[in-house]
Amino acid sequence: MGDMEKQYMIHIKEFIQTFCFAKNVEIIMDESNLKTNVKTHKENNCKVINIYSCYAIWLCMNEIYPSWFDISIHPAQFETEIDAYECLLKYLNEYHEKKYEKITKQILDKLSALTINEFIDIYSLVILAALVSDDKQKHINNILS
């Protein structure tokens, strides 16, 4: 991996740390779960960055809503990282009750060539989901008590 790809990996790990801080949880990235036979990176390393990013998003959303973001939509279940990303983004859009559908649609349109701006948008939606999930859980607990 080149310097730029290493920087992206550092940002992905920082994203996981931010999420863990927001949710007060610990998440361990087990990279052995990712298929390597189909998801080998191209010369520009876009695929390897996308698959790690996709996996990070799945890990975080699995922590928030494990019944939706279960093993059936784990990035390793898909033939390409684009398919995995598309599925996760659609689930994330549903989780947010389509409030950020415009952002999600823009990301989906650029899925084959994500830039740092799209990564930031995706991570923002996940961090927002982490913060919203606490409020949703408190609301459910209030209703049940």
TrEMBL record:
Domain of life, per lineage: Eukaryota
Database matches in InterPro entries: CH_dom_sf (IPR036872)
Identification of the protein by name: Uncharacterized protein
Annotated organism of origin: Plasmodium falciparum RAJ116
Organismal lineage: Eukaryota, Sar, Alveolata, Apicomplexa, Aconoidasida
